[in-house]
Amino acid sequence: MAKFHPSIDLLTEYAAGNLPLAQSACVAAHLNYCESCQRTAVQLQEAGSALFGALDPVPVGDSVLDSVLARLDEDAPLSYAQAPEADQTEVGRTPAILQRLMKGDFSELVWRKVTESLRISYLKTGDPGYEFALYHIKAGGKIPDHDHRGSEMTLVLQGGFSDANGSYHEGDFIYRAANDTHAPTALQSEDCICLAVLDAPLKFTNWKYRWMNPFLQLRAG
Ligand SMILES: [Zn+2]
């Protein structure tokens, strides 16, 4: 059971459909692990639509109507599966929304080696403002101290990691604001795979790794 959850503010933005696509996909993936947040999101959606239904109708111009009708032909938006799969294979445990973006399992992804214990695989969500990537940290491995010019959402998919603020396991959701420095270390027992959604590239603060910063450009899209 997940111990760390999105804030109520984030869940409200999610339920209202206000989050950018990449962040919304990360919150949706957490809901796959967390019945409590899933229930809250449904309640917020119901409360939102009740409020919306109580509003007086506003006349809509032809151009708005045209753009709404045009969207009917678009692909369905990314969404989360209502219930986790019973199948406990690696792919079965992976949230449906990630399976769609990964088109395979973890071993079939293209992984870029960043340090001895860190590999990153970038996934495409179609959201140009956010990097959406999987981080693979070797058991006991450390991600060098880094901070962010923007926000960072993390969801633990496999194994776990710890930092100065706590220890995180499968399904845990962590949100960090800009300029929050931290140095996550994978748990000793197994390799850790996390989903990370960033709106600015991470920046290593330790002098040994600073030379890499120019290469860590945001790979959004
Ligand atoms: Zn939750």
UniProtKB/TrEMBL annotation:
SUPFAM superfamilies: RmlC-like cupins. Residues 105-196 form the ChrR-like cupin domain. It comes from the Bacteria. Residues 9-38 form the Putative zinc-finger domain. InterPro entries: Anti-sigma_ChrR, Anti_sigma_zinc_sf, ChrR-like_cupin_dom, RmlC-like_jellyroll, RmlC_Cupin_sf, Znf_put. This is Anti-sigma-E factor ChrR. The lineage of its organism: Bacteria, Pseudomonadati, Pseudomonadota, Gammaproteobacteria, Cellvibrionales.
